[in-house]
Amino acid sequence: MHTVLTLAGREFTRLRSRFTGRARIIVTVVLVVALTMSYVAYRQQAIRGRSLYRVGVSPDGPVIRDTRFNVQTLSPQRGEEMLARGAIDVYIHDGEVMHRDTEKARYATGALALYLESLELARISELYPEAEAFPLRVDISNFLVETSPDGTEVKERIVPSLTQTTVPFADVLKSSLHLFPLFLVSVFFTSGLMEERRDRRISVLLSSPPSPLQIIIGKTLPYLGFALVAEVLMTLALGGNVVLGLVVFLPVVLFVLSIYLMVPLVYRTFKDTTFISMFVTVATTLYLLFPAMLLGVSDLSYISPLALAVEMYRGNAISWRAYLTSALPMFLIFGVFIYVGSRILNEEYLTRYRPLYRKLAEAVLMAMNRRRPYLSVFLVSLSLIPVVYLVQLVILTVSLNLPTQLAFGGLLIMSVLVEEVVKSVGVVMLIESRSVRKPGVIVLLTFLSALGFLVGEKLLLLVSIQSVSRTLLSAVLLNAGKLWITLLAHFAFTTIVTLLTRWLGPKRYHLALLAGGIVHLLYNLSILGVLQ
Amino acid sequence: MTWAAFSALLDRELRALARERTVLIAFTIQLFIASFSSGLLMGLMAIYDPSAERLSQQIRPRVAVVGVDHVATGDRLVEILEGHHARVTTLATPAQAQAAFEAGELEAALLVPERANAVLNAGEFLALELVLPDSETQETVMRMVLRKPLAEYENVLRQQNDIELRYRDVAGEPSTAFEFRYGALVPLLMFFPAFVTGGIVVDTVSEEMVNRTLETLWSTPLSLNAILGAKMSAALLVSLGQSLLWMALLTLNGIRIRNFGVVLLLSALGAVMIAVVAALLSLSFGDRERSQFVYALFILIVTGVSYFSDYSPVALISRFAIDDPSVSLVHVAAYVVLAGGLVAALSRASRKLVAPA
């Protein structure tokens, strides 16, 4: 522990030394301006665009305060003249809305109608008693209809005119502000490791007593601290519950840091790091944002911790299952990546320049104990489950939104390939490193890999919210079928991949993968009833 | 400085970008994600705002109104529901509704309380009960489809209280998809390449500075400004290619971009300005870590500022793309001048910012 804290202290000092004198002033000013601008932009909620529509309003017309409308006060004569020559899309006069006969003007009128409705509702709520202004309530319940005098159990009471079903953009946007400081902290985290690699200080450190794991934890700790402090401050600024905010965002912080740990360990040049970081940032943001947009429509939204954050800011309760659905894969990925990072943090791996897929494959090989191949392949499959789970849940979420006919085939193919790669990669790397040769041993290793995959999958499904396991496609993607059939199927498809790789050679792994993938795909199609 | 030396350096930079296949892979993946996300978001909008995709006209829910005689405006309720494509049956008791639901003949039941008239006459609000299937998806769809007719019926009750909502007859097209396309998607995709350009410039300049190869380059016939110019030009060419790719993709997806050339020019001007700032930051800090950090903050500021002005490059791209008659080339010219000023400032400040060893 002392060693880890010393390393963390050293990293903190290094970081502090980068911001002295003029640099500190510049960075502080820019940081304050950036945070203020982001917050004000968020408050303005200008996400829907600026000046998309040109609207003329007569002097006695309504006051329009919405960034989408570029509003001019115009006399009736001028307004009608400008409308006629297309200088404005819509003109409002004497309670009447006139618009041009163009596509854009019709959109403008549609947007204006909703805006004016909200203005009118606000007006009558001020002028009249509530029961007169809003004379209808709708109590929502589910079948069975109770015929007793007490009636059916009411789930929710709504006022129809005040109930808008809109994408929870604003709420999700508010929660996504938590990601900004996280990505900024990651810039330093990645850069620090990159620089140590570049000037070979990491080699000196590796020859010293601390173990690679201690080095990684020591270097991660300061950034973990910064990120958590930033999350607390952000929760306070946005008016959330600090403790709950920390509980919700801790897995996100660990998840993002673990991914950014891998970037400089796998890559060498600045440009590589920037592009992969950029990709990771985009992919992580998409992964966190999109499921959260489904909040209120499907419980699948709880795949993303941002959905939990939205619930937190709304003052709603968060169930343990919902929390585990989003947090557990992230905690597990953090654990796996820290372990893999500690295995590949060595001179040989860091200085070798290879394509990305080779580096990742080598990372898998180095994460295994070659003296215990059976246990290793089992654990590789088991520990990569959270990665597969994240990828497949994204596929599942996407499948709910895209036209099934178009997306179905592609989604199935993607999920099959992801699964087969994960199940076969450990065995294939052992074949390539010539640690195993005999087909019998390969078949046994494949069986253990398939078993590890199945065990991991069932454990994750056990703690997930029911909607994940209930979805039709999840029966296929997450193999929610009979246990022994699933195990045999896993085993059979991957055996095709591993044995073909053994016979054709690792260079033709893609062909073996294709063969195993096709059989797997046919099996999935038969489960779904597409193939009889 | 000779043109030959400049083009040789530009060629070297472009080759370096092309050689590192990860860059190209990253571009392809980003392209995929962006096109994918637009499809996904349009799908989301169909869920939350069915009118945007005209889904509500395609769904014809079977609704039972139980106790329609309990309220004087019961017939209006049925009329409104039918006007919104619902297939309505009137039933006498909740038990009948339950039986019809179990027989698969209903998706929703609307129960009118027995004392409905009395409640309304007493100046209180009427509470209807809406019974829906116990399935998350079905319940969500029914709630979305029935919200509008119920709001319309609420207005009927409101009129009985002599309260009139103005502007009720305003008819237009649902604007959600249009606003998303032109207010968010088009500007985002047209500026993403500019952000990438800045990232490349920070990396390429700070890499030369950290490795001290900038000094070596500087000792050749090339001036410092020519070196920076070549590096920035390479990044800008990549950006321009990406912007064109985005625009082609948007057009293929049926999103029409008016004033194609002006939109492309604005995207390029944004990239030039961001590239100049990125170069200034790299020269000032001399290392990637601080330069990238401040650059990331700068992007945050630029994004924030863009939301406050109707004439920011982001807003202008939206407005030109929808052929807004109130924007003209004068607004673009202002950014040409600004970009030119920034380039001039960089060429004047570059030597002072980087002191040769």
Describe the structure.
The complex is a heterodimer of chains A (532) and B (357). With 532 residues, chain A is mostly helical. Chain A is 70% helix and 5% strand. In chain A, the strands form two sheets. A four-stranded mixed sheet of chain A has the order 2-1-3-4. Chain A has a two-stranded antiparallel ribbon with strand order 5-6. The longest helix of chain A is centred in the last third of the chain and has 29 residues, at 404-432. The N and C termini of chain A lie far apart (60 Å). The model of chain A has no long low-confidence stretch (mean pLDDT 81). Chain B has 357 residues and is mainly α. Chain B is 69% helix and 6% strand. In chain B, helix 4 (74-83) links the parallel strand 1 (62-66) and strand 2. Chain B is elongated, with a radius of gyration of 30 Å. The mean pLDDT of chain B is 83. At the A-B interface, helix 2, helix 4, helix 5, strand 5 and helix 7 of A face helix 2, helix 5, strand 4, helix 7 and helix 8 of B.
Task: Lay out the secondary structure.
The complex is a heterodimer of chains A (532) and B (357).
Chain A: H1 2-17, H2 21-44, E1 53-57, E2 69-73, H3 76-84, E3 90-93, E4 96-99, H4 103-127, H5 130-133, E5 136-142, E6 156-158, H6 169-176, H7 179-198, H8 201-206, H9 212-237, H10 242-266, H11 270-293, H12 305-313, H13 320-344, H14 347-351, H15 356-367, H16 373-383, H17 385-401, H18 404-432, H19 439-463, H20 466-470, H21 474-477, H22 483-504, H23 509-527
Chain B: H1 3-19, H2 21-48, H3 55-58, E1 62-66, H4 74-83, E2 87-91, H5 94-102, E3 108-111, H6 116-121, E4 126-132, H7 136-160, H8 176-210, H9 213-218, H10 224-252, H11 260-285, H12 288-306, H13 313-321, H14 329-353
- Largest sheet entry of chain B: 4 strands, mixed
Count of discrete alpha- or pi-helical segments spanning 4 or more residues of chain A? 23
Mean pLDDT of chain A: 81
- The value of Rg of chain A in angstroms is 28 Å
In one word, what is the shape of chain B?
Answer: elongated
> Averaged pLDDT of chain B, please?
83
Number of strands of chain A: 6
The sequence of SSEs of chain B as H and E is HHHEHEHEHEHHHHHHHH
Strand content of chain B: 5-15%
Give the helix level of chain A as a range of percent: 55-70%
